[in-house]
Design brief:
The complex is a heterodimer of chains A (about 180) and B (about 950).
Chain A: H1 3-15, E1 23-26, E2 31-34, E3 42-43, H2 45-55, H3 66-83, H4 89-102, H5 116-129, H6 134-139, H7 141-151
Antiparallel strand pairs in A: 1-2, 2-3
Chain B: H1 2-7, H2 12-30, E1 34-37, H3 44-53, E2 61-64, E3 82-84, E4 90-91, H4 94-104, H5 111-137, H6 143-163, H7 175-188, H8 199-209, H9 212-222, H10 231-235, H11 255-258, H12 264-276, E5 299-304, H13 315-320, H14 322-334, E6 338-345, H15 350-359, H16 363-380, E7 387-390, H17 394-409, E8 413-423, E9 428-429, E10 435-438, E11 447-448, E12 465-469, E13 477-486, H18 488-503, H19 510-521, E14 527-528, E15 530-531, E16 548-549, H20 551-554, H21 558-566, H22 571-574, E17 580-587, H23 591-605, E18 614-618, E19 621-623, H24 638-641, H25 648-657, E20 665-667, H26 669-699, H27 710-731, H28 735-756, H29 758-761, H30 766-790, H31 795-804, H32 809-812, H33 841-850, H34 856-870, H35 878-900, H36 905-925, H37 933-938
Parallel strand pairs in B: 1-2, 5-6, 5-17, 6-7, 17-18, 19-20
Antiparallel strand pairs in B: 1-3, 3-4, 8-9, 8-13, 10-11, 10-12, 13-14, 15-16
Classes of the chains: A mainly alpha (about 180), B alpha/beta (about 950).
């Protein structure tokens, strides 16, 4: 199964949706497609994810105020445009640097509330974070703190490997 | 607040919106919400339009900053526009900003709107930024701008027309409309980039463009300069990378199909078709000679653009016409359509005369020599012409003169005195291709005498600025001579009527439509059809005895005369528009002659000619990201491909795999190796070979009994779906896309074998052994089906598989639309052996060096310098001379080094040729006569 479809299945379980949906993948980038019962199909990871959240009656995960809603969608867009597809080393480093700086004063991506943005960025970043060295994890300290927090959030990690972050700093001089 | 509104007498329905807007108003005043913009950023348009739509425009604090300003502290790269909220949060995504304005009004987004916004960010933006960059920064026009975004535009158009709603997400306007409109406006405001056939897109775009918030946004962002207002901003941005061409499953039209989950009926139908077996196959057409149209049948006449005789064709020429047409001809025969495929060499013209002088032969001898070269190349590539003729025949003269007389007697020709360029030094009238100068339309410096390579417009040589004789670089003088003109303006109305009837529902490629439309939009002009030459079709008119027809009047008539040389009943094909479907294949530069000039001649001649029904034009194939160039020894030419040791089927496969179907593509050696090793060797070859090997090894070469499980039935249904799509695509001549279906089926097959592991089961219980038999039987049947589907693409490999599997000839000759069991239990197959060979890195690197790919950048650079130096005004420019002197020195040391290394002779010769060319240019730039090479050496 394509990676995106797998991720959506994880999300379904996390949301407590019982009936597993069937996904197909479209094109070279394997964009997920959901065939809904009562309407046309839905295409795109962020679109389907938001749809599932509504289906599970957990709208608060999409944000509560206008501002929070816009911020959640902004990070979902960031996920599908910046995190997916761009896999050269420099791009990834830039992305982690930006996120690290952003998360400096935040618990979650919207600030103080856990949302779909945290879920999809966690899934999207997992493959990069597992490959980081301890030194890099300390360099992107705020990302590491956020990631470690999210992976311990009940039900989110499932079969994905748990990434180890060491509490005592190993590399004191890195910034 | 609501009460206040109602008291002021507004309509009830508007109450809520107003109240929300009032809230918004308060928000904006209370907080320090600030929008940061920079001049000319494309994102300004949707953001301001959305603000206007949500009634926030007047209240928004806007700061204009420089494009380099990092407004968002945590983003390394500057991003604008940005909205800073009073909470300190930043919205740096254009659609998130728009969304926020809408949310403040209480307007939420549904799934469909979200889907469009996600599509805009992931699919539209990457291609749109390329198109805008090409248009605004690089000053390109036409296809260069349109082709990157065409698929995306078609996707929007189809979605709108399929749902028949006026807006993207339904009956009323949504955020998606504003965001997409804002993104597309700079491009689509120029009608040239909003093709007429996208009617739904057009009407959607116009509906939005007239709305007040949109108009206001346009005014303040584009400032009446159109897309050029974005120039300063876009110039500072990195050049966007063209996203990879996507396979067909990503095509908008196939949305439903790729999302397809199999229904019970589809599975049942696939099983029924399978069980019907060979009985269901269509009867095979008996072979005929000559092939003639038959009433009541589908009669398909296929032509490929006539290659010019004295150029050895390169790979780009081959994929552009003869190979593409060959695939379609082979497919058409597999469908049992009554098919005739013709081509031939185009032999008349100045270039032939000159070549003859050079080689000390007569023009006819030159044509004979090169006609044979062409014939051999196409034979090696396995092109299945029914007839490959030539234009220097009595039939050509007869038919051309007949059309001419008919046009003359109907008043579509007139005489006029023409001012012509004559080179006094060479003492001859200069044919168009021997004049070069500055294009009068776009200012391109190396425009040819008949057409500008940059803007594509046709030029009368005399209109060129700063004309030069290409042979001696002398400035030619203007002399007058009498000529005949085809009165195209008189025929314009008939042409438009015919196009109106023909284009609707036909399979003309979008670029062919675009080019034709742009010709008509500019208005047709009379065209001179005679030339002061000897080597051509004589003009049968008093006072024109020493003139011949110009090739672009009579070359397209070559198709008719070649048919006449094939059969004396040629008129059954060419004067039979009711029964014949004419497919013409060519590269895009040939479109006007086939869509405008020849149809006008034929319509004017009033002799019921068969006119093109489907005009299939390709874009260009580049060589390793540059151009093929015979003079620079760069690229692979038809006669060289044979000496690479790579079989012709592999060349065919790769050229078809990268066929420049909707945009230019590149030939790359590394890619050729990768595609051979991954798609052919590991995917297709591996599957077919394994399927056959299992039959031989485990079942003594005899196809085993099969009992289909539900899994097998689903597989059959999947294969059937791919087969159907293959047919749909090839019927529309989407050759490259259909090839993907073949590869998908073998991927299904590999997976099927991998999951079912027949090599393990054969050692198991009775039931296991039976299962191994079923899996092997189904797999070998898929291999048989694939061999037929591959036939248009790789005819030799196809025959090899069919021999290995001992597929009966009647089965090989027809491709069904369903997947019947082609090899029933008990069928004995032959000896199975591997189909493809691995290409190794060393081998490919060697070829790359041999064909000049490595030196490409160097020579392009030199070319740029040289061409500047060629302009007469700069003859004495010391800087140019210095550049050339440096280039000569540099090239000289390249040659010395190669000689010192005792490098390959051909390689040394190529470098020496370059050196000599450079020296010539230097001499020209210095205004010296050419020294003999030896004298130069001593200097």
């Amino acid at each position: 199964m394509a990676a995106a479809a797998e991720e959506l299945t994880l999300l379904e379980k996390l949301l407590g949706l019982r009936r597993g949906n069937k996904y197909s993948a479209q094109g070279e980038r394997q964009i997920p497609v959901l065939q809904t019962n009562n309407g046309p199909s839905l295409t795109g990871l962020a679109t389907i994810a938001a749809h599932l959240v509504k289906q599970a009656n957990k709208e608060h995960l999409l944000g509560s105020t206008a501002e929070e809603k816009a911020v959640v969608q902004q990070w979902l867009e960031y996920r599908v445009t910046r995190i997916d597809g761009h896999s050269n080393k420099d791009e990834i480093r830039n992305m982690l640097k930006d996120l690290n700086s952003y998360l400096e004063d935040k618990v979650y991506l919207t600030g103080n509330n856990f949302t779909l943005a945290d879920i999809l960025l966690y899934y999207g970043l997992h493959r990069f974070i597992v490959d980081l060295t301890f030194q890099e994890k300390e360099k992107y300290l705020n990302v590491s703190r956020w990631f470690s927090h999210i992976q311990h959030y009940p039900g989110i990690r499932q079969h994905l490997s748990s990434v180890v972050f060491i509490k005592n700093r190993l590399y004191t001089n890195t910034h | 607040m609501q009460r206040g509104d109602r008291l002021s007498g507004s309509a009830e329905a508007e109450g809520e919106g107003r109240a929300n807007r009032f809230l918004l108003h308060q928000r904006l005043r209370g907080g320090g919400m600030r929008l940061f913009v920079t001049e000319g950023a494309p994102g300004n348009l949707p953001v301001l339009a959305a603000a206007g739509r949500a009634g926030a425009r007047g209240e928004l604090l806007i700061s204009t900053v420089s494009p380099e300003e990092r407004v968002v502290p945590f983003l390394t790269r500057p991003k604008l526009p940005v909205l800073k909220l009073d909470s300190g949060h930043y919205l740096f995504s254009t659609s998130a900003i728009c969304r926020y304005f809408f949310l403040l009004c209480g307007w939420e987004q549904d799934d469909l709107t979200n889907q469009w916004l996600e599509w805009e960010a992931t699919e539209l933006q990457p291609v749109l930024s390329v198109a805008l960059y090409n248009l605004v920064v690089q000053g390109k026009k036409g296809e260069d701008v349109l082709s990157p975004v065409r698929r995306a535009l078609i996707h929007i158009d189809h979605s709108l027309s399929r749902r028949s709603c006026p807006f993207l997400a339904g009956d009323s306007e949504s955020l998606a409309d504003i965001v997409l409109w804002g993104a597309l406006y700079p491009l689509l405001q120029d009608p040239a980039y909003l093709p007429d056939e996208l009617a739904a897109l057009q009407s959607w775009f116009q509906t939005l463009s007239v709305q007040e918030p949109c108009q206001q946004a346009v005014e303040s962002v584009l400032k009446k300069q159109g897309a050029l207002a974005l120039r300063t901003y876009l110039q500072k941005q990195p050049q966007p990378i063209v996203p990879l061409e996507r396979p067909v499953s990503n095509e908008p039209e196939e949305d439903e199909l790729s999302a397809h989950t199999l229904s019970e009926e589809e599975i049942a139908m696939a099983v029924t078709a399978w069980e019907e077996g060979l009985e269901a196959l269509p009867p095979v057409r008996p072979w005929q000679n000559p092939v003639l149209p038959v009433a009541g049948e589908r009669n398909v006449l296929i032509t490929s653009a006539l290659p010019y005789v004295n150029n050895v064709p390169h790979l780009g020429n081959i994929i552009g016409c003869v190979l593409s047409a060959d695939v379609f001809a082979r497919y058409s025969r597999l469908r049992q359509w009554n098919t005739l495929y013709l081509c031939g060499t185009d032999e008349y013209g100045t270039a032939t005369e000159t070549k003859a002088m050079e080689e000390g032969l007569t023009p006819q001898q030159i044509c004979d020599k090169y006609h044979a070269i062409h014939t051999n190349i196409y034979r090696w590539f396995n092109i299945s012409f029914d007839f490959f003729g030539r234009t220097t025949t009595p039939h050509q003269t007869k038919i051309t003169q007949d059309i001419f007389q008919r046009l003359l007697s109907r008043g579509f020709l007139f005489k006029d005195t023409v001012e012509q360029l004559r080179c006094e030094r060479c003492s001859r009238f200069l044919a168009d291709r021997f004049v070069e100068g500055v294009c009068p339309f776009c200012g391109y410096e190396e425009a040819r005498g008949d057409q500008c390579d940059k803007c594509g417009k046709l030029i009368n040589a005399i209109e060129l600025k700063k004309p030069q004789c290409k042979i001696c670089r002398e400035s030619p003088v203007v002399k007058s001579s009498q000529h005949l003109f085809l009165d195209l303006p008189k025929l314009e109305k008939r042409l438009e009527e015919w196009l109106g009837r023909t284009l609707a529902g036909s399979d003309w490629t979008p670029n062919a439509r675009f080019i034709t439309r742009s010709w008509l939009r500019d208005g047709l002009k009379p065209r001179c059809i005679t030339r002061d030459l000897k080597w051509g079709t004589p003009v049968p008119l008093e006072g024109f005895q020493d003139k011949v027809f110009y090739v672009w009047f009579d070359a397209t008539i070559g198709y008719l005369s070649i048919t006449a040389n094939y059969t004396d009943q040629w008129e059954k094909w060419w004067k039979n528009p009711e029964q014949v479907e004419l497919y013409q294949f060519m590269a895009k530069d040939n479109v006007p002659f086939h869509s405008v000039v020849f149809p006008c001649s034929a319509l004017g001649a009033e002799d019921n000619y068969t006119l093109v029904s489907h005009l299939i034009a390709t874009e260009y194939l580049n060589y390793e990201d540059g151009k093929f160039s015979k003079s620079r020894g760069v690229g692979v030419f038809g006669d060289m491909a044979q000496n690479t040791g790579i079989p012709s089927d592999i060349w065919r496969f790769y050229l078809l795999f990268v066929r420049p179907e909707s945009q230019d593509s590149s030939f790359s050696w590394t890619d050729l190796m990768l595609k051979n090793n991954s798609e052919l060797l590991n995917n297709l070859g591996n599957f077919v070979n394994r399927a056959g090997m299992f039959v031989c090894k485990f079942f003594g070469g005899c196809v085993p009994k099969m009992t289909l499980t539900p899994d097998d039935q689903r597989l059959l249904a999947h294969v059937t779906l791919e087969l159907r799509q293959y047919h749909q695509l090839l019927e529309k001549v989407r050759i490259r896309d259909a090839l993907r279906c073949v590869l998908t089926i073998s991927r299904h097959g590999n997976q099927y074998i991998q999951v079912n592991e027949p090599w393990k089961r054969i050692k198991g219980s009775e039931a296991d052994r039976h299962r191994a038999g079923t899996v092997t039987g189904v797999a070998v049947n898929m291999a048989a089906l694939l061999s037929i589907m591959m036939q248009p693409y790789m005819p030799t490999v196809s025959t090899t598989i069919q021999t290995q599997l001992q597929l009966p000839p009647a089965v090989c000759a027809a491709l069904p639309t369903n997947f019947p069991c082609l090899l029933p239990a008990g069928h004995q197959i032959g000896i199975v052996s591997p189909l493809f060979q691995k290409l190794e890195n060393d081998q490919i690197e060697g070829l790359r060096k041999r064909f000049g790919g490595g030196q490409l950048e160097d020579s392009l650079e030199l070319k740029a310098k040289v061409s500047k130096a060629e302009a007469p005004a700069e003859l004495a420019d010391p800087e140019q001379i210095k550049l050339l002197t440096d280039a000569v020195t540099k090239q000289g040391s390249v040659v010395r080094e190669l000689k010192a290394q005792k490098a390959d002779k051909a390689q040394v010769a190529a470098e020496v040729a370059k050196l000599l060319e450079l020296k010539q240019h230097l001499a020209l730039a210095e205004g010296k006569p050419l020294d003999p090479p030896k004298g130069k050496k001593k200097k």
